[in-house]
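Support request from a user on the community tier.

User writes: "When I paste my structure tokens into the form, the page sometimes reloads and wipes my input. The last time it worked, I copied everything first. Here is what I submitted, just in case something in the input itself triggers the reload:"
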């Protein structure tokens, strides 16, 4: 009997210590760095119903209101990398807002909504498209940059990079660094792959040029474990409902 009691006691101890271990592990889990990165393209009052990359301004306003009301804190690109690299503490609900292609809806429609809530964002800019027929002017870029919008590199001409030679890829990336430095006076050190398309050469060029990281499309939430040259983004498409948006911000999918 004594022996059985002894075995039962040992088993109980094992259970308790295991439960203790489990709760420590889950407490650690909640402190993990997890940051949703949103990707928008065109946002305007009358999106083309046949173009899934165009998003309704009315719905976009609901997104930003949701983030504001639920305590999300928008990050600058520098803050984002500092948190991933554990150089800065993570705020409770961090989020990174990104917009691609410097399209001409950003200044009249998106920017005022961001200003209303004091939100930070990043505009991934195609340098050959600056002042283009459907794009932001250089003055608009400078104005938004002075008011919380990071201007970063999205290539010279928006090609499928994986179809190009390493040398051509180098030019597509480095010439934009030069052009944006000339335009803004600031260095760019983060890239977004046009069409989410890249290969090993692209990554080696970015490393050679000292880029801190690069964003792809899809892949869930970004974490401190994410490959810095394959950082995930959640792409917002026209058919996504507000419920989709809330789920994607929370889970990455
Ligand atoms: Zn793009």
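"...and here is what came back when it finally went through:"
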């Amino acid at each position: 009997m004594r022996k059985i009691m002894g075995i039962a006691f040992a088993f109980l101890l094992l259970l308790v210590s295991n439960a203790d271990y489990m709760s420590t592990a889950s407490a650690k889990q909640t402190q993990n760095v997890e940051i949703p990165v949103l990707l928008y393209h065109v946002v305007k009052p009358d999106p083309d119903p046949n173009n899934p990359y165009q998003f309704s301004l009315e719905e976009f306003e609901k997104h930003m209101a949701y983030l504001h009301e639920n305590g999300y804190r928008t990050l600058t690109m520098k803050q984002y990398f500092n948190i991933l690299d554990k150089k800065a503490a993570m705020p409770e609900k961090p989020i990174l807002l990104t917009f691609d292609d410097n399209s001409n809806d950003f200044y009249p429609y998106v920017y005022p909504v961001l200003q209303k809530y004091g939100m930070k964002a990043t505009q991934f800019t195609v340098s050959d498209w600056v002042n283009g027929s459907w794009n932001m002017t250089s003055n608009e870029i400078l104005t938004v940059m002075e008011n919380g919008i990071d201007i970063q590199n999205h290539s010279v001409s928006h090609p499928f990079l994986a179809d190009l030679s390493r040398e051509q890829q180098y030019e597509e990336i480095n010439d934009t660094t030069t052009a944006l430095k000339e335009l803004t006076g600031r260095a760019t050190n983060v890239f977004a792959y046009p069409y989410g398309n890249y290969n090993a050469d692209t990554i080696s060029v970015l490393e050679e040029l000292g880029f801190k990281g690069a964003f792809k499309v899809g892949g869930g939430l970004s974490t401190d474990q994410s490959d810095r040259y394959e950082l995930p983004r959640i792409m917002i498409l026209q058919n996504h409902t507000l419920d989709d948006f809330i789920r994607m911000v929370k889970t990455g999918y």
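Agent notes: The reload is a front-end session timeout and is unrelated to the input. The chain has two domains: 1-31, 35-251. The CA atoms of residues 145 and 166 lie 31 Å apart. Escalated to web team.
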